[in-house]
């Protein structure tokens, strides 16, 4: 059976990510299949809207297939480069799609899963949604347009999410701009059935309910105060000085991540905040991603978290103060002929 199920249901083009044992993690063929389906439906008058969902009970998509990335990164990395190129082009394709693109962000939605959902025009979360950008925990940096989304969250919420790898609930996702509507998970089947015959705005008006309160948004005061610092070192220092218990926990979480990835991520977020478009941000993310592919922390982070699962990565360098500004700058160098070139 295919890893992506593509079908028409009435006037709905339905995409189902179909690797439930891997929480529908994306591989290169899946990205190509998604892009081809979207291209074929964009000018098909029989298709009024497109929806994406995930097979199984665990979630829409847990991200890219990082086991395959780990294996490729120990070689020449060529397969991962090609995968990321097509994935980021797909993210832009979704964000500019001419028809309603309805993403059912039920269950786990991480990394690449955010890329195929949160750039859509109709983004639905449920009480089961757990959304995040966990990249710095494996020596990587938020990508798939994630820095663009995070940089536009209220205040410094996006910085907190990126540096701690915090998981967003449905209420958090709506407040932070990763989602638009809340629908109970038990209603998703009926919602998809309705989309096959009715326009998305009519369906949403009938099924959407008020989103739960965001606990993250309620903590804006200490988050904005601490994460507005210009360096990761100062962010950690402010968190450690803050009397709020959650601030101290956040400092501990940050200090367990890759020091290099943290510093590159902060620069990426600040750059994305000034970016005029998702396409411009994706171009820069591609530069950063390829630099991460050459960095020892990505291979080590995946080993520690996913392969050996000892949860004890040996980062290089091991301390924030040993990651120089010059080192961070190398992650943003122009790629010449390898540039992504979205516009």
TrEMBL record:
GO terms for cellular component: cytosol. It holds the Pfam family ECH_2. It comes from the Bacteria. CDD domains: crotonase-like. Residues 13-332 form the Enoyl-CoA hydratase/isomerase domain. The keyword Isomerase applies. SUPFAM superfamilies: ClpP/crotonase. It catalyses: 3-hydroxy-2-methylpropanoyl-CoA + H2O = 3-hydroxy-2-methylpropanoate + CoA + H(+). InterPro entries: ClpP/crotonase-like_dom_sf, ECH_dom, HIBYL-CoA-H. It is an enzyme of class 3 (hydrolase). Keywords: Hydrolase, Isomerase. Its EC number is 3.1.2.4. GO terms for molecular function: 3-hydroxyisobutyryl-CoA hydrolase activity; isomerase activity. GO terms for biological process: L-valine catabolic process. NCBIfam families: PRK05617.1. This is 3-hydroxyisobutyryl-CoA hydrolase. The lineage of its organism: Bacteria, Bacillati, Actinomycetota, Actinomycetes, Mycobacteriales.
């Amino acid at each position: 059976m295919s890893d992506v199920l593509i079908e028409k249901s009435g006037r709905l083009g339905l995409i189902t990510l179909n690797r439930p044992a891997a929480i529908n993690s994306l591989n290169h063929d899946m990205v190509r299949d998604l892009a081809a389906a979207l291209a074929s439906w964009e000018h098909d008058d029989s298709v009024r809207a497109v929806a994406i969902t995930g097979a199984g009970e665990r979630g829409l998509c847990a991200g890219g297939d990082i086991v395959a990335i780990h294996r490729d990164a120990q070689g020449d990395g060529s397969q991962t480069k090609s995968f990321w190129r097509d994935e980021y082009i797909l993210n832009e394709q979704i964000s500019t799609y001419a028809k309603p693109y309805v993403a059912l962000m039920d269950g786990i939605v991480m990394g690449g899963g955010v890329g195929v959902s949160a750039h859509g025009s109709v983004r639905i979360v449920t009480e089961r949604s757990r959304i995040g950008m966990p990249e710095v925990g494996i020596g990587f940096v938020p990508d798939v347009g994630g820095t663009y989304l995070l940089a536009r969250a209220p205040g410094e919420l996006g910085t907190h999410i990126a540096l701690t790898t915090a998981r967003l609930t449905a209420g958090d996702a709506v407040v932070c701009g990763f989602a638009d509507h809340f629908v109970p998970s038990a209603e998703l089947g009926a919602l998809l059935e309705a989309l096959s015959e009715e326009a998305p705005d009519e369906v949403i008006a009938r099924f959407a309910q008020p989103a739960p309160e965001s606990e993250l948004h309620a903590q804006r005061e200490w988050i904005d105060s601490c994460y507005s610092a210009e360096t990761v070192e100062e962010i950690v220092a402010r968190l450690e000085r803050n009397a709020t218990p959650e601030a101290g926990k956040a400092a501990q979480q940050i200090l367990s991540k890759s020091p290099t990835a943290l510093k590159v991520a902060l620069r990426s977020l600040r750059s994305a905040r000034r970016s005029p478009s998702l396409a411009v941000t994706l171009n820069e993310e591609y530069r950063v991603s390829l630099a991460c592919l050459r960095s020892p922390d990505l291979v080590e982070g995946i080993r520690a978290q996913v392969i050996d699962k000892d949860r004890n990565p040996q980062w290089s360098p091991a301390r924030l103060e040993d990651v120089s500004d010059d080192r961070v700058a190398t992650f943003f160098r122009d790629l010449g002929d390898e540039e992504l070139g979205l516009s």
